[in-house]
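Researcher: I'd like a structural prediction for the single chain below. Treat it as a standalone chain; there are no partners to consider.
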Amino acid sequence: MMTLEITQTQAYDEPWYRDNRHTEDPGPSDWYQNYPSLSPLLRLYIHLNHHRVLVVGCGNSAFSEYMVGDGYEDFVNIDISSVVIEAMQKKYSNRPHLTCVYLLFV
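Model: Treating it as a single chain, here is the predicted structure.
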């Protein structure tokens, strides 16, 4: 009879995990792709100044910052980590087109 070993996985979806991660490593991080590598594709579908952009699970990525630098406007970044949202709100306080919102699950 085969037995399965129980393995422990990271709690990526837990606010406490994200808060700890961003406290320990506050630098910008893009998990899958960065903006420069995706910008040609994004330009095909998201035209400058014509769309509102919602970035779900923004983390501390510089993705939105790069897009604003390229001329895109009207961003809302949301994340479950209060640590990262507070840092992003402070960092982008002088950028009115970038809004950062803490998403609270109850």
